[in-house]
Here is the input.
Amino acid sequence: MPVIVGTVIEKDSKFLLVQEAGENVRGKWNYPSGKLETGELLSEGALRETREECGLDVELTGICQVGTHRFPNEAFALVCFAAHHRSGKIKFDPEEILDACWFSYEEILEMSDQLRNADRVIHAIQNVKDGIVAPLEILKIYANPEDLKTNK
Here is the structure.
């Protein structure tokens, strides 16, 4: 089951979008996101994907979107974090990302036909804009069941 993690990064009332280079989504804009890797926590995956896709270090400030799609042969889950830019300048691998730019909310609405999944991207950004962000404390990190058996 793919678990996707991403970040809506806000800076000076603008939001960072990356333009994807992948064959099936080439040229589409999205917030930085990607698949959670085995052994990663949700927050770790979101921070890694953000660094990989745009070179920025961010501070996660909350959870702005949890979603799913209905697919006939697989399950899909998405967790998107709200974030603030901490440091770094935008840099990316042109094999993965074509461009990365800051956009106002209004600009993003006007480019909905250029977004990878307009409903998902706009909804997450709208939540951040409106302050509909769950605190990070809502995310619980459970102990590994094997560790509990051995009292680690």
Summary: The mean pLDDT is 94.
